[in-house]
Amino acid sequence: MSSEPVVIDGVLHLTIATAAAGTSLDFDLIDAGTAALGSLDAEIGAVLVTGAGANFCAGGNVRHFADAEDRGAFLHDLATRLHDFVRALADAPVPVVAAVHGWAAGAGMSLVCAADIAIGGPSTKLRPAYPGIGLTPDGGMSWTLPRIVGVSRAREILLTDAVIGAEQAQQLGLLSRLVADDEVRTEALRVATGFTTGPRAAYTAMKKLLAQSPSATLDQQLDAERDSIAAAANTSTGREGVDAFVAKRKPDYRKVD
């Protein structure tokens, strides 16, 4: 498995951690991922985020934290780089799929929360991990987690440093679905690849609607949905989808602009 960002069959593969240093977050890969996300082209229809090793990501490398001469400055730099990556994921106009095998702890859990779809297995476990080392969340967890599980449950998870098993994670909405442990990467790739032949313009518009909905009133969201579906109807993607339905054929979104 390549660790550097690579595009295969329309899917941008981003590795965030490797077996080195116990599958802790690899910031060279994070920086490379941010750069790749900032230069997406029409070839890319989805993003797949994964870890190479026993875990999706075990969080930051705490030994590096301890070795830093100025720990505050060191963590400030790492959080800035991580947050650039999270912003790039949020801004991606295509679906982001995470293959969550093994542990997703600390920043690893934050990146699970940042994905559009997260696939896990029976052995998948999530944990904030910040209280255990006397630190506070990064990677957007204090923003995404309450929006996924609710404010009260997010408080409990963060403050008690809860270990969340696979079934509970799925029930809470942290994981989208569960498959066999040895099928997590395969299923996540299958889902990501499926998006590459789908209505990309519609996916982009859907992500925009979902992103703005937490801060919008119902009236504002209804107006946004009205304007979005009207705009979609006049795009080549929308025309192909409707025309294919009427003709009783499968739409071919690959031929649209």
From TrEMBL:
CDD domains: crotonase-like (cd06558)
InterPro entries: ClpP/crotonase-like_dom_sf, Enoyl-CoA_hydra/iso, Enoyl-CoA_hydra_C
The UniProt record lists the keyword Cell cycle: no
Gene Ontology MF, one: isomerase activity
Alphabetical keyword list: Isomerase
Pfam families named in the record: ECH_1
Similarity comment: Belongs to the enoyl-CoA hydratase/isomerase family.
Name of the protein in question: 2-(1,2-epoxy-1,2-dihydrophenyl)acetyl-CoA isomerase
Protein's organism: Nocardia caishijiensis
